[in-house]
Amino acid sequence: MTIEPGGDDARLARTLAQAAGLALLEVRAGSAEGTELKDAGDARAQAVLAGLLAESCPGDAVLSEEAADSAARLSADRVWIIDPLDGTREFSERPRSDWAVHVAFWEKGELAAGAVALPARDVAYGTDEPPVLPVRAEGPIRLAVSRSRPPAFVTAVAEELGAELVPMGSAGVKCSSVWTGEADAYLHAGGQFEWDSAAPVAVARAAGLHTSRIDGSPLVYNRPDPKLPDLLVCRTEFAETILKTVARHNSEVSTR
To answer: What CATH number does residue 76 fall under?
Structure first.
């Protein structure tokens, strides 16, 4: 694939995510299973993204889950933060569709663009064409949670809120469920890295959603330590209620 140098970064993010997604679908159509399929998917998507970035933005730094980190990114003005395959477990469990590709672009201290592709659903969301939030139907708050291992902390918060838990796979899928209207919030406190949330947060912000740490502080990217363990993405009308409830539970845990 040839990408025109100097193209719009938001449009490029979408193109990159879709290209990696197509490669992952090819891998998934093969005969590999289990760990072999996971490893093949990670490697193929990383190779596609690394190759296209080297071709289109040779001077930019890259932070990827699937590549060695370099301190050079900390002094760079332009950094791509990528998760070539978000939801490796879901990817390996055919025919599940709740896995994603994340491509975010950080520039001079802020997320500037991003795209989240859901290849098995043949859809991609990006800051070049931000999602339009649907009108919310009446009912309890719906929290997107892990299909296999919802954390006890989030379950306790949901119980206090009277919220409904909506199980699904990868972080990108959970975030996308908020801007598509399938859920009202994604609350995570079980440990993540910058590549898990950068692209979804960029798209969520472009869609007008609230994004923050679970204590309400800003999400900061391209830091020396890429660990970014917690996250809240939600409709703005629920942000204050959720953050106050989370704060009460954090206080209870810290005093035990």
So the answer is: 3.30.540.10
